[in-house]
Amino acid sequence: MAADIEESQRKISALVRVGRAMVSAADYELALGTLIETVSRLLDVETGGFLVYDPARDELVLQLPAFGIDDPQLIAEYHVPLSAGGNAVRVFLSQRAYLCNDAEHDPRMIHRFVEMFGARNILSIPLIVEDRPIGVFHAINKRSGDFDQADLDLLTLVAPLMAVSVSSAQMFRELREKSRQLERAVFLQAELSRTALDAPGMEPLAERLADLIARPVMVLDSALRPMASARWPDGQVPSQSWLRQGAVAERGGRGAEAADHPVVTPIAVGTHFGGYLAVLPAGASLDVLDTRAIEHAAGIFALEMLREQSAYEVESRLKGDVLQDLFTGSYRDEEEAAGLLRRLGYTLPGACRVARVEAAAAPGDRDTRPARWQEEMQGPQSRLYSALNEVCAKVLGVAAVAPWRSGFLLLLPALNPEGDFQLAQELFEQFRSVGEQVRPGLRLSLCLGSAVATVGALGQSLEEAERALAVARTLEIADRPLAFEHLGVYRVLLGPNNARDRRDFVDEALGTVVRYDLEHGTDLVDTLRAWVSADYNVGEAAQRMYVHANTLKYRLKRIRTLVGGDPSRGELRLQVELALKMLDLPRLTAPVPPTVG
């Protein structure tokens, strides 16, 4: 267990360090050098090198610096046509990593290059951006021995960030080559990169960009819904006309009458499309330098979106795997399981409830198809996760949220039902508020399982929270939290039909009546059964019970008090009738004694 946690911490540390290296420099060679140095420390290797695919030449070209060599002439000799084969080409074309601990005798290796760089062992991974291979990274000569599977797993984990970083660095190099026209864009890139490192998120980036270009800025998702803004006037509401005006501007048809119409630039890196960056000219038309600067600023926003999503996916995978094991009973030792929960950040003492949070498209949203909705939520999901954690830290004193399936999972303290529901209501209201900030029109559901006292029982509470969530989805309950105890008849209808659920349901519906009979020697349950059988006719029920009608009426008055309403009306009628049927189950399912004689 300690080894697993140590390995998880090593992976998270690797992602953080590579993420920092991604935004540490705008210079192409310096960025690659920083990445090589970072990965070399992570894997304890001597050095490494990037090969980037050049489609014009159909070759993999080694990038400077590489393998500890700064000689451009020597580096220029290392370029491999895809038709030449070799290890790098195979890794690039197959998009599969390769580990070699005997480079000198491996037939896959091009031995001229093995000798050139003195390679003893090599770990090669493909660099892929949005399913498109862009190159290969080689790590060579591990200092402490041979490469192993842990090294391969770690390098594979950080490979997407490295690939995005290389693509970003290429973009930066192209900017520098445009000289004076793009000097402002480079400056803007550096400023936004610093902002992304110091204060990650769309809002800080939007604020900084608005300061740099002295104009209002708004970040939109792919459906033109605002995600963040700075200095934006209230009267300017996103519309499809913004995109049409942008197309006119690109063709040179923008007139003076459109001087205050937003300039809209796609936010994209590689084939990843995240939305749009809108800038309001604010009375002064944007010149070429302004426009170019905004276009390149959109790349930083795209990288920030990718960074948020990558970090979210990693944490989702790591936390999700551990919680899955905990909730399925893989950890038999209660103390060990509780300790693991604490290390995950769940430091709530005593009994707990599992709660499920899920986001959905609001009624009337432009496109609520499940596939489209999940695609659009990929970016907001990670920002929503951070926002929910901040709310829990403020309300509970602990960030008790983890990504779970298509939503999130929480552990809430369980004190008493009334207090638990009040706490859930407070969380729900704040969740809705931050959800609206992350994505206007977002609809959240919060559903609770029952209170459990041990870690081993958390799986039961989770299963109940999922059933409550199913009811909330079906009945479109999005204005309040929904607890498992409040499901009523749906608790049985949507459940696994086990004895515990039936017993709990009967106790909630008729427990007060059953206990009253036991304590006072009455037969109110039989009275209720006779009344229901007589189709709620008092006279007929009295005849069946052999009592006076007034006596039956008195008993029914007592029953109404005990069950908290009229058992012959509304939803209570269904619950009472179903509970009576369940009370009969033991008698109906009892084995028939053999006939004697």
List the keywords.
5-stranded mixed β-sheet, 53% helix, 4 domains, Beta-Lactamase, 597 residues, elongated, Alpha-Beta Plaits, alpha+beta, 6-stranded antiparallel β-sheet, 16% strand
What report would you give on this structure?
- This protein is α+β, with helices and mostly antiparallel strands.
- The protein folds into four domains: 2-176, 2-Layer Sandwich (Beta-Lactamase); 180-307, Beta-Lactamase (2-Layer Sandwich); 345-487, 2-Layer Sandwich (Alpha-Beta Plaits), CATH 3.30.70; 502-589, Arc Repressor Mutant, subunit A (Orthogonal Bundle).
- 53% of the residues lie in helices and 16% in strands.
- The strands form three sheets. It has a six-stranded antiparallel β-sheet with strand order 3-2-1-6-5-4, sandwiched between helices. Strands 12-13-11-14-15 form a five-stranded mixed β-sheet.
- It is elongated.
Oligomer: single chain
The rough form would be described as: elongated
Gyration radius, rounded = 32 Å
As residue ranges, the low-confidence spans are 247-258, 366-374, 588-592
- Kindly name the structural category: alpha+beta
CATH topology assignment of the largest domain: Beta-Lactamase
Could you give the order of strands across the largest sheet?
A: 3-2-1-6-5-4
* The CATH fourth-level homologous superfamily of the largest domain: GAF domain
Mean pLDDT: 78
Helix content: 40-55%
How far apart are the first and last residues' alpha carbons, in Å?
A: 66 Å
Structural domains: how many: 4
How would a crystallographer describe the biggest sheet?
6 strands, antiparallel
CATH class of the largest domain: Alpha Beta
